[in-house]
């Protein structure tokens, strides 16, 4: 099972300063926009990510082992810093983004927490369950991450269910025989 954590949610953004005039930009070439093979390079074959092995993805994204199980790589670190309010007066970076992959043989991640709010995005593969706990005797809340929105799965943890920094969490794959990636 293959789980990617916090992949880019926005593929393209453009900001226009206040008071500026918007400039019309022609759309990209349709082959480029839909990622269709270029006829001039037809010897290159596109392989869907769900047809790749976990080890292929680990190698392609340069992922390294994570202490919570699985593999990760940081892909973004904000240059702005903030002062945390929930753990003292420590300064930390305002935001980061990572890829996180949990291989099928791993089964689940360890219970852990981070000192920031997390936003999870699911992209491909078998669905997974994100278990959330306050570690105070209250029931564990489970949210399914996946692409089947008609079966109660969420492609993104929406703001109302984004885990606060004080919650404990773990990931569990729902279909161990498949390789999976999300978020």
Automatic annotation (TrEMBL):
Region spans: Disordered: 23-45
Name by which UniProt lists this protein: DUF985 domain-containing protein
Give the Basic and acidic residues compositional bias ranges: 29-43
Xref: InterPro entries? Cupin_DUF985, RmlC-like_jellyroll, RmlC_Cupin_sf, YML079W-like
One Pfam family named in its UniProt record:
Cupin_5
Q: What keywords tag this UniProt record?
A: Signal
Which branch of life, at top level?
A: Eukaryota
């Amino acid at each position: 099972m293959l789980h990617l954590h916090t992949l880019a949610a926005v593929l393209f953004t453009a900001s226009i300063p206040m008071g500026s005039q918007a400039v019309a930009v022609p759309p990209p070439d349709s082959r480029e926009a839909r990622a269709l093979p270029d006829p001039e390079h037809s010897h290159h074959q596109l392989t869907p990510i769900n047809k790749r092995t976990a080890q292929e993805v680990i190698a392609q994204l340069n992922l390294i082992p994570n202490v919570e199980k699985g593999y990760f790589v940081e892909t973004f670190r904000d240059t702005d810093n903030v002062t945390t309010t929930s753990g003292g007066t420590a300064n930390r970076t305002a935001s980061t983004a990572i890829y996180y992959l949990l291989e099928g043989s791993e089964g689940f991640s360890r219970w852990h927490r981070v000192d920031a709010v997390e936003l999870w995005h699911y992209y491909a593969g078998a669905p997974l369950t994100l278990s959330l706990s306050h570690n105070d005797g209250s029931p564990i809340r489970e949210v399914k991450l996946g692409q089947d929105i008609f079966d109660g799965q969420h492609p993104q943890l929406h703001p109302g269910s984004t885990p606060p920094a004080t919650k404990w969490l773990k990931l569990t794959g729902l279909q161990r025989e498949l390789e999976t990636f999300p978020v």
